[in-house]
Amino acid sequence: MRSVVLLASFVSIALASPFLGQTDILGLFQRSVSSGCSTIGTASCHNTSAVSNLCCFEAPGFWDTSPSTGPANSWTIHGLWPDHCDTTFSSDCDPSRAYTNIASLLTANGASDTLAFMQTYWVDINGDNENFWEHEWSKHGTCMSTLEPVCLPSGSPTGLEAVLFFQTVVRLFQSLPTYTWLANAGITPSTSATHTLSTLTSALKTASGGFTPALDCTSGALNGISWYFNLEGSVIDGTFVAINAPVAGSCPSSGIKYPPKSGSTVRLIDFTAPASLPTKATIKALRSGSAVGGLLSAGTWSTQTLATFTISGTSSSFTMTSSKGNCGVSGGHLACGSGVSLTSFSAVSSGSNILLASGGSTSFSSDGVPSGTTVYTVYTGSGHADGYTLSIVGS
């Protein structure tokens, strides 16, 4: 199975303001459900023989984001679906689990924050969000082998696998700040400008760490972006390994329009580059607006005395060091030490906070919340159990 993430339907809403910080909406994954699966085994689409335990190996790939509504400064979500490693996919695999009233299902299972996010970023072109969500779950979610009810912990409530599906889609979407990635390359919506396909894909490839998505156009206008992954382990808590799109999208090689959205009313959040950065700072972890510890000198998350970091550069590109040595991102996690290569970070303002960003995203996550002497590895993106942002505080 391969995962496809499609960011689409950008047209017809006015993109005039800075990117809306999707990672400002925290606490999306308060409910922790473990699949019990390893993430170091065979990735989807890479097995050479039949796999018997399909609770830990996704048999068909997925991801898509495409309605033409939502915030004027963000792409929106279409969905997430598995394919058969050849771009074909099954659909509507289990009509008995074609759940309705997704909003109530999410709320009843403690995922009201996920619902709130979906109501802004996963919206239907005709305004019928509920029908859209039901369709995406029944058509694609029911075809995910690792979300079969038998794969969930004993005693799980009916419909929990659908809740986990929606949480995973939101988490993946938050890890792909496509609007910001394009804007950082000087590519913003315009009524007159046109772009080449190579310019657009190059900007996204660079920002995403080297992976090329598929871009789709309608009448020469960009309206869909598909990101592809292989999956190690379960959809619930596995590792989504980014890959290059196996097929090209429908956009032409040149003359591509990136029109602003129009006719929408949105709530905009200040999410811009700060005027300046401190040269010495501590870095605090923010969860639901409250500080919960921060970074130690090795780049780990703790509630112990925070380290002081030295910052060199500007808000759009800077490096950090601690008493341990250089700080950088390697293997998807943050570390500081003598053998670490420096990584360029950026910073954005969100309200009164200056947030640390890696690869254009302010999302960070860990496998737990620290207390006492317990520390956790800091991963980039929202792929682990507990998400947060990192605030740079001058010292």
TrEMBL record:
Among its keywords, does the record have Plastid? no
Q: Mention one GO biological process in which this protein takes part, according to its record.
A: RNA catabolic process
In what residue span(s) does the RNase T2-like C-terminal domain sit?
277-387
Q: Which residues form the signal peptide?
A: 1-16
What does UniProt list as catalytic? H78, E136, H140
Q: What is its main location?
A: cytoplasm
State its location(s).
Cytoplasm; Vacuole lumen
The UniProt entry's GO CC annotations, sorted and at most eight, read: extracellular region; vacuolar lumen
Q: What class of enzyme is it?
A: lyase
Q: What is its EC number?
A: 4.6.1.19
Q: Which UniProt keywords apply?
A: Cytoplasm, Disulfide bond, Glycoprotein, Hydrolase, Lyase, Signal, Vacuole
A Pfam family annotated for this chain is Ribonuclease_T2
Instruction: Give the molecular function GO annotations.
Output: hydrolase activity; ribonuclease T2 activity; RNA binding
The text of the family note is: Belongs to the RNase T2 family.
**What this chain does, per the record?**
Rnase which modulates cell survival under stress conditions. Released from the vacuole to the cytoplasm during stress to promote tRNA and rRNA cleavage and to activate separately a downstream pathway that promotes cell death. Involved in cell size, vacuolar morphology and growth at high temperatures and high salt concentration.
PANTHER family linked = RIBONUCLEASE T2
Q: What is this protein called?
A: Ribonuclease T2-like
User: Which species does the entry assign this protein to?
Assistant: Laccaria amethystina LaAM-08-1
